[in-house]
Specification:
heterodimer; A: mainly alpha; two-stranded antiparallel sheet; 20 helices; 2 strands; B: mainly alpha; 4 helices; elongated
């Protein structure tokens, strides 16, 4: 009985817990409740992934109303995979969160932070699981509004302006998306993704549908911070509390990429917009510019959080590049990099959170000698950094290997060379951190510091080890990604 | 139908949309930006509402002698979007209040100047 209700429970549980957290108020209890909910959602999403891998796509009708009238939750392989990423990151971040939140957020606001975290999780999970384009918009706004609030909880006053700018850009993006949805509805009279995918090909040449597609793509690209639309991201990540940065960097942009995958390969799957309308060239060009421009920006940052925020923009470039190949290997590389980058970035930002807790800042000068003063934290960050570069035996290598293979498949030698070249830039910015931490000595008057608390170190190392494990043995993740890419390229949801 | 007057609503939508969008981009006052954002969103509301209207149609309530109804679905959808829009404006205004408290101004260029000062202070305290 309960097994058939899992898709809805996944979204409902954090949603119900949010107002409860608001009533309970005690920081400790609220944290424990949130922790419980995040781990339950993680277990549910794992079960769902197993079910999808064995039995194929799961369709759940809300209230028993059949689509296209009712709202459907549809979970195929790529959906289930992203669902696991989001809920896994959610649960690990929550395990890590308590000490960091106590240090960085005013005590009387802590329960509000957890409420917002739960709402954001609801929104992100909902986006992934829904099969209805308007429902997706609602979840998108739930997750966005709560993430604006979470960012504004940062200590620095610049967190407020970062949140404000993100709000303006994010709302523009979401409104663009809703304009696109409206135009599709005008032409087809349906909001169901599977239904739209069937109806769109026959009218794909109409100007309305093409305009709709443009609005949808630009709107979502704002959300996922594709290169020229990324301006909100660096400040938001830099001034948000560490926990928020770790969570959003690993999930929010990833889920937006998932929406782009849905638009390009499911809604417009049979139209082949990538090749037919020249979208491929635009996305590819922007992705490559992102890889270089953002990496170069990263090299010049003194604030480590900001450095890795720019690196996130560059890494999103790799993901979009993979998708823009529109081949099985390319899309699979993009999907697997969603997972790999989520692990790496979450680990790095968690590590920076530990440093912020013990040292009080994450500027390059704060890093001096930290390799010896906080060896465990620093080692985990370096493992993450190696993953960003794409050293063999780390997850980053798997993604880049498949990206380069996808480029070779289509005889795009130059792009393959550019992928390798941009990795060299990653070496430069990761080296800056390594140099400061291991080769510079700590200032004489530095106060003695201890290693980060166990709960934080543990979550950090789970991710660091995961980034090695899935780098050495990538068969599980790669098989799921290749399968998902195959279904996506061969006609969407079913 | 395809004349200027036949598409009157959509012209209004486009004009409002561009006005709102331009305000968001060009204004430096945080409140004016929010106003622009609202105008932008309202244009989308009008767009949805016009889309659902059927000429000569009435509200979708079963009654004798009435055969043409407007499509209620876009109207319902846009009710949701209006709620989202209200929430967004409320949050944006709340943030503006906090920004005014923290920076003492809501002019973007002045805030930027203060932010650069903050940056400089951070670097000083470290060196």
């Amino acid at each position: 009985m309960i097994a058939t209700q899992l898709p809805i429970l996944q979204v409902i549980l954090p949603l119900i817990m949010a107002p409860i957290a608001l009533i309970v108020r005690s920081p400790r209890t609220v944290w424990m409740l949130t922790l419980l909910v995040t781990w339950i959602t993680f277990c549910i999403s794992l079960t769902l992934l197993m079910q999808v891998l064995e039995g194929g796509t799961i369709v759940y009708r809300i209230g028993g109303w059949a689509a296209p009238w009712g709202i459907e939750y549809v979970l195929d392989k790529v959906g289930a995979f992203v669902l696991v990423i989001v809920s896994a990151i959610g649960s690990i971040v929550m395990t890590y969160a308590r000490r960091s939140v106590e240090a960085e957020i005013q005590e009387d606001r802590i329960y509000l932070f957890y409420t917002m975290f739960l709402l954001c999780l609801t929104g992100l999970l909902g986006i992934v699981i829904t099969g209805d384009v308007f429902n997706l918009f609602v979840f998108l706004e739930i997750s966005s509004l709560s993430s604006y609030v979470m960012i504004s909880l940062g200590k620095d006053r610049r967190a407020l302006t970062a949140a404000y700018r993100y709000l303006i850009m994010g709302t523009l993006g979401a409104t663009f998306y809703i304009i696109g949805v409206g135009m599709m509805y005008m032409m087809t009279g349906t909001l169901n993704m599977a239904d739209l995918a069937v109806l769109i090909p026959s009218i794909a040449d109409s100007r309305t549908i093409q305009t709709a597609m443009a609005f949808l793509t630009v709107g979502v690209c704002l959300k996922l911070a594709l290169f020229p639309l990324h301006l909100w991201l660096p400040n938001a990540y830099t001034y948000a509390p560490s926990v928020v940065t770790a969570f959003l960097a690993a999930t929010a942009t990833k889920v937006a990429v998932y929406v782009l995958i849905r638009i390009v390969f499911t809604l417009f799957g049979d139209v082949n917009i990538l090749e037919g309308l020249g979208v491929q060239n635009i996305l590819m060009a922007l992705a490559i510019v992102a890889m270089f421009a953002a990496s170069i920006m990263a090299i010049y940052q003194d604030n480590m959080k900001r450095l890795f925020a720019y690196s996130s923009v560059a890494q999103i470039g790799y993901i979009i590049l993979g998708l823009s190949f529109a081949s099985q290997v390319g899309v699979a590389a993009g999907i697997v990099h969603l997972f790999n980058h989520a692990i790496i970035k979450c680990a790095i930002f968690m590590g920076l959170g530990c440093i912020a807790l013990r040292v009080g800042g994450v500027s390059i000068k704060n890093m001096y000698g930290l390799g010896y003063r906080m060896p465990w934290t620093m080692a985990a960050i370096v493992i993450g950094g190696l993953g960003l570069i794409g050293i063999p035996m780390t997850v980053g290598f798997v993604s880049k290997w498949y990206l380069v293979r996808a480029a070779f498949e289509q005889d795009m030698w130059i792009i393959a060379a550019l992928i390798v070249l941009s990795s060299l830039l990653a070496i430069v910015y990761v080296w800056r951190l390594v140099e400061a931490a291991y080769l510079k000595s700590a200032p004489q008057d530095a106060a003695p510091i201890s290693e980060a608390p166990l709960s934080m170190l543990l979550s950090l190392w789970i991710l660091a080890l995961a980034s090695i494990y899935f780098g050495v043995d990538a068969t599980t993740t790669m098989n799921i990604a290749l399968d998902s890419a195959d279904t996506l390229l061969n006609g969407g949801l079913q | 139908m395809q004349t200027f007057s036949g598409l009157f609503n959509y012209w209004v939508v486009i004009i409002l949309m561009m006005m709102g969008f331009y305000m968001v981009i060009s204004q430096h006052n945080l409140i004016k930006k929010i106003v622009g954002l609202n105008v932008f969103q309202v244009s989308v509301f009008v767009f949805y509402i016009s889309m659902g209207k059927v000429k000569g149609g009435t509200a979708p309530i079963l009654a004798e002698g009435i055969e043409i109804y407007s499509n209620p679905l876009p109207h319902v959808l846009i009710l949701t979007a209006i709620v989202v829009g209200v929430a967004t404006s409320a949050l944006a205004l709340a943030l503006t209040v906090r920004i005014k408290d923290a920076f003492g101004t809501i002019e973007e260029d002045e805030i930027e100047a203060l932010e650069i000062e903050d940056q400089a202070k951070n670097q000083e305290s470290l060196s």
